[in-house]
Amino acid sequence: MRFETGPDLERPIARLIKPLGQSAHRVLGVVRRIRGAPQIEPVDRRSREHLRLSAGDADGVEDGELVLVQLVSGEFRQGAKLARVLERLGREDDPRAASLLACHLHGLPLGFPAEALAEASTAKPATLKGRQDLRNLPLVTIDPSDARDHDDAVFAEADSDIRNPGGWIIWVAIADVAHFVTPGSALDATARAKGNSVYFPDRVEPMLPEALSADLCSLMPGETRACLAVRMVFDAAGEKISHGFVRGLMRSAASLTYEQAQAAFEGTPDAETAPLMETVLSPLWRSYQALRSARERRSPLEITSAERRIMLDAQGRVTSISHRTTLEAHRLIEEMMIQANVCAAETLEQKRANLIFRVHDAPSADKLDALADFLESLALPWTKGEPPRTRRFNRLLEETRDGPHSEIVNEVVLRTQSQAIYATDNLGHFGLNLTRYTHFTSPIRRYADLTVHRALIGSLGLGEDGQTDAERRGLADIARHITSTERRAMAAERDATDRYIAGYLADRIGARFEGRITGVTRFGLFVRLDETGADGLVPVSRLGGGYLHHDETAHALVDADTGVLWRLGRRVEVELAEATPVTGGLLLRMLSDPEPAAEGSRPRGRQAVRRRPGPMRKGRGPRSRFG
């Protein structure tokens, strides 16, 4: 916390600098009975010391039980810190323990206070008063097959205006959460504290109670729902001519999956999509062709990033892990949502309204210099001092796409990018190559979007439940907070996924896997397994004898004597040595040989690492995201 004082302040004011997650005095762990005495093994892989239980708790816990404990200040027993049990959370072998562990470890606020639940349960559907009737517009939702809520719907039709030949009118309708979650309410306070919904393979921790997120706010087919919609007009080349927002009532004509929509676009509709082909799906597809041509001219970053899909059975056990396939149907919805978000930002800027932007800064000069040095080691040209442009990055990715360095270049370009944040100052969105951008299309699961809805309602005179003066003054603090909650959610989701995968692989110790080196550190190599997308660690102690240099420029571990090396992006074969579901850690043994030294090359780097036999260390590979 930062404390501010001054002559105009009656008392110090504390401002949050950075949330630290779980308190250092509280530890989530697993009970391990060693020679009959219970000890607590922390589930956080960064914590290596075991704790002892106080006398009153030692007899009441069972081996393998998950417990939340609090350290007893200054107390030790047999050289270990002493702790007392605060909460018993179930067993580590419960298939659904992975998400529970992630929630507690990252301090996610769970559930809803009684006041918020009461407000949600008594909420009434919106009426047509003050709204435009859009119920005859055949809007459809297109979502993943496992979607838990539906907050956006789309419709397109050819523009009949003779001044816009070949043009399109595209509607994007978004759930009107602002009608139900009003400033100063318990629902609003809870949604702000959560910041966003968090999605796990087995469950979701929603930002809003189910009475809203899965019912009154969800755009379910055949049900009248309140919405905030934008009508956008594009020319034949996909360039936007105009747009306007309305507050309305809509009725979704269908709830489709991406796979259904894709099959229909490819000419094989099913019983649900066939009646929609002429009036809904064909116009959507043709309008998307125009938007796609405009996107190609805009040239946003085209970095690929594989996502994993974990399938569970009824008991919560992992049955399969696969890579999510990106379809053109995904890109269609993505581009229409991007255009709606741009419209929201443009409208609010034109109205001089305060808003929270979604900003993505350009890469720093230091990161660009490091990228140039790395590309030089691969004999790939990159001019130092050249201003960062998405088109230049895309050209590099395209030039290397079919070559041996495709995946490593994609990985390093991704790591060169900044992380997107929420802010009240508009820095533009480098990754999308847009000068103004905000989040408007997912208010059921993101508080940022709710603030933008309220700003639009207030600025356009669409109701009395728009942005208040208090919220307007606090937007900068809200932006910092929801950036933090987004990071927290991403970390919790990754941790839960890692634990599920470790549990899935626990009975395959000794199995061999193909993979790729995705991280090079002074203490070892991270390898991403092709089969599951999981990251495991090969400790430096298991890479043979001698000394290794960590060459940060080349992203490699280099043998100081022979020059053989392990380089980022290299394809390798590994053996699974250990899988620990409670921490999500995978430890691997390297089966492949190192890459031969380049002729005339000398090891580079400042950090020398001696490889000594020793215990394998747990860890997780680096990840990076923007958007």
Characterization of the model:
The chain has 627 residues and is α+β, with helices and mostly antiparallel strands. The protein has four domains: 26-92, OB fold (Dihydrolipoamide Acetyltransferase, E2P) (Beta Barrel); 125-360 and 423-496, no CATH class; 365-417, no CATH class; 509-610, Beta Barrel (OB fold (Dihydrolipoamide Acetyltransferase, E2P)), CATH 2.40.50. It is 28% helix and 27% strand. The strands form nine sheets. Strands 3-4-5-7-6 form a five-stranded mixed β-barrel. Helix 3 packs across helix 4. The longest helix has 31 residues, at 475-505. The protein starts with a strand and ends in a 17-residue tail after the last strand. 40% of the residues are buried.
